[in-house]
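Hey,
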Amino acid sequence: MPRPATKTHPKSNPAGIQDYIAIVIATGAGAGFMPKAPGTAGALEGLLIYLLMESLRLGPYFLHAIIFFLIIGTWSAYRVERFWGEDSQRIVVDEIVGQMITFGIAAGRYPLPVYLVVFGFILFRLFDIVKPFPLRRLESLKWGLGVMCDDVGAGLYALIVLTLTRKILGA
C-alpha cells in the first residue's frame, strides 16, 4: 500500500546545499525516485548495507550504522518535508533504517541462512505496509520523527519475529 505523495502542501522549494544533501539522504541516493515501489527499493538498500557490513566483517559496528542512519534520516526527513509534504513516498531513508533494524541482533553475532535473510526482508515489508498497532499512530509525530518511527517499529516487529523463527528452527 503506497503512501500518498504528500499529506500536506509543500511550503517551499529546496534552497541550498543542506536541502540537496537532505534530498540525497532522504531518497536513499535516489531510490525514492523509483516510479514503482520506492519503499521496497529503500528496504533493499537497508538489506544491502547489512550484507555489505557482514561481508566486510563490520557486523559488530552495525548498531552504530543504524544509529547514524536514524539520526541523519530524521534530520533529512524533517528537512525535505518542508517542500515535499509530510511522509512523501520519495522519502525512503526510513525503510533503510527499518530494514537494518530487522537484522540488528544477527549482525556480527551469527550468520543468517539465505532463507532467513529473505524472510527478514519480507517480514519488514509486511509490517511496514500493514502497520500493526501502534505504528500508524507514530506517523503523526512531528519534525521527521513520524516518518522514521513507524518504520523503526516495523523493523522491531520484524526483528522479534525473525529472532523467534531462527530459535524455533534452530538455524
